[in-house]
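PROTEIN DESIGN WORKSHEET
SECTION A - STRUCTURE
LENGTH: 286
TOKENS:
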């Protein structure tokens, strides 16, 4: 596609600009007189620099320059590339910033703990421009360890991390109760947000044993806290029912919940149902 440039020349002798360009070897594709002192000229894009140098060096006023044909397409492509690049940079920066902590807000009745909470966040690597915490459990446990703090939640909106902290009346402090194993078996899951765990996942426990005690260590200081934890124990369950097979299965599910490796056998009194069951106990957690 032919590329060319159009422009207007203004001067008292504007009509002589065409002749001047032609004598200098610039091919004038077209020329249109707009008045006594102005001419609209079209030339090949490749002669643009040469033509402008000639005219401006001869005191002609060159105005209203515009690209046409292939030159126009190249100009538009250049602008589009710039816009696309700018949009890509903007989008990338926006996505990056939205994945980062730009501001931390502490709300609730425990907002006066702002300095202590910001220190806890810093210790866990959460600060300005850091990534949002993937697991807020350790942060929650430390914040709940502050005196009188009974509730803590995290909310993320854009680049703002909001932490709602609520404190209770110290005079009505709940007793520090330990978390006990709900059955004899193997610990399948143990989640501890506050308190001192005495077992780990995979350990064997007996029903009634203390799994999490109601204290936390702050440096060398041992401080009583309200346990916030949950434990799930996997165990072998078996019971005989003086019922029909269908009724025995239904009652077993009511007694033990869902059973793995289900086994059922006929007995003199009815049916014996067995399998792998799970029992969960929790304090402060659903």
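SECTION B - SEQUENCE
RESIDUE ASSIGNMENT:
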């Amino acid at each position: 596609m032919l590329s060319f440039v159009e422009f207007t020349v203004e001067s008292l002798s504007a009509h002589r600009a065409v002749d001047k360009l032609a004598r200098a070897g610039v091919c004038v594709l077209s020329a249109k007189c707009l008045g006594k002192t102005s001419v609209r000229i079209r030339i090949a894009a490749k002669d643009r620099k040469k033509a402008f140098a000639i005219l401006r060096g001869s005191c002609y006023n060159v105005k209203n320059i515009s690209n046409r044909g292939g030159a126009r397409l190249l100009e538009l492509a250049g602008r589009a590339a710039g816009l696309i690049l700018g949009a890509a940079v903007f989008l990338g920066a926006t996505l990056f910033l939205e994945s980062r902590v730009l501001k931390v807000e502490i709300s609730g009745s425990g907002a006066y703990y702002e300095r202590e909470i910001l220190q806890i966040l810093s210790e866990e690597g959460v600060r300005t421009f850091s990534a949002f915490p993937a697991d807020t459990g350790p942060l929650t446990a430390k914040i709940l360890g502050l005196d009188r703090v009974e509730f803590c939640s995290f909310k993320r909106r854009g680049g703002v991390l909001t932490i709602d902290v609520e404190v209770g009346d110290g005079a009505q402090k709940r007793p520090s109760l330990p978390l006990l194993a709900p059955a004899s078996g193997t610990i399948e899951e143990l989640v501890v947000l506050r308190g001192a765990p005495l077992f780990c996942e995979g350990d064997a426990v007996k029903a009634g044993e203390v799994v999490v005690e109601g204290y936390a260590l702050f440096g060398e200081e041992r401080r009583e806290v309200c346990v916030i934890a949950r434990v799930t124990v996997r165990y072998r369950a078996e019971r005989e029912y003086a019922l029909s097979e269908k009724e025995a299965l239904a009652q077993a599910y009511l007694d033990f919940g869902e059973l793995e490796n289900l086994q059922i056998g006929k007995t003199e009194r009815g049916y014996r149902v067995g399998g792998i069951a799970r029992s969960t106990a929790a304090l402060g957690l659903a």
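SECTION C - NOTES
Helices lie at 16-23, 48-57, 70-98, 114-123, 137-144, 245-256.
The mean pLDDT is 81.
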